[in-house]
Fold Methionine ABC transporter ATP-binding protein.
Amino acid sequence: MPHIAIRDVTKTYPGRRRRDAAVTAVDSVSLDVERGDVFGVIGYSGAGKSTLVRLVNGLEPVSSGSIEIDGVEVTTLAPAALREVRQGIGMIFQRFNLLRSRTVRANVAYPLEVVGTPRAERRARVDELLRFVGLADKADAYPEQLSGGQQQRVGIARALAASPSILLADEATSALDPETTDEVLDLLARVNRELGVTIVVITHEMDVIARIATKVAVMEQGRVVESGATYDVFTNP
Ligand code: ADP
Ligand code: ADP
């Protein structure tokens, strides 16, 4: 059974004004992401990548089609059940989305606070995560005292706090310079290899796909126009 099975999913937004045409952001997309994959989704801006991620994460309802995670149909779940599924999905973002007023430690602890993890357990888990991402010495720093690459490592630690089986990375290296991008991609590769987390990497950068993704889907205007092993998709015969 695929870890994430996307079946004929379409997402249409109504026009922003009444006379505007509707926008089909995701158009009849089907994809299988297997457990343990690092799966890349590449396409230009506006191709529908972020929308697809929001649908998988249950942040928005699909217009039609089905999405199964671990064999569970998630498009029709009641809010409480959906929240539970979303606990199993971590997200990282282009702009890191850290809370400025909170320390590194408190940012990473945040998702655990939300689910009511006891303080002692939270501490131990946060310490372990900060060691894993190489930022144990920055626990008491504030996000703005860190470099972009360090902030994204905090983002990764936070995304992993609730021990998700899936990590969705939406343009996670697009705000970083090439060297820092490499560091963050190396960390994501370790998350996949050492923790067994399935990773979906959304990007407009071919280099990112080439560095980390074993499989790739190419999106254009809401559709998947090509997909398969990265080597096959990007190697011209
Ligand atoms: P990408 O992540 O590949 O840049 P998006 O998923 O952000 O693409 O956008 C796909 C299309 O859907 C674009 O035409 C965009 O303008 C449109 N779109 C995205 N979100 C909304 C929204 N909330 N309301 C209306 N249109 C949207
Ligand atoms: P304060 O708000 O007291 O200045 P922080 O901003 O560091 O301290 O902490 C904010 C939140 O992070 C608190 O809710 C606290 O429970 C939690 N927290 C503090 N230290 C740790 C830790 N070592 N591990 C996990 N959570 C922590």
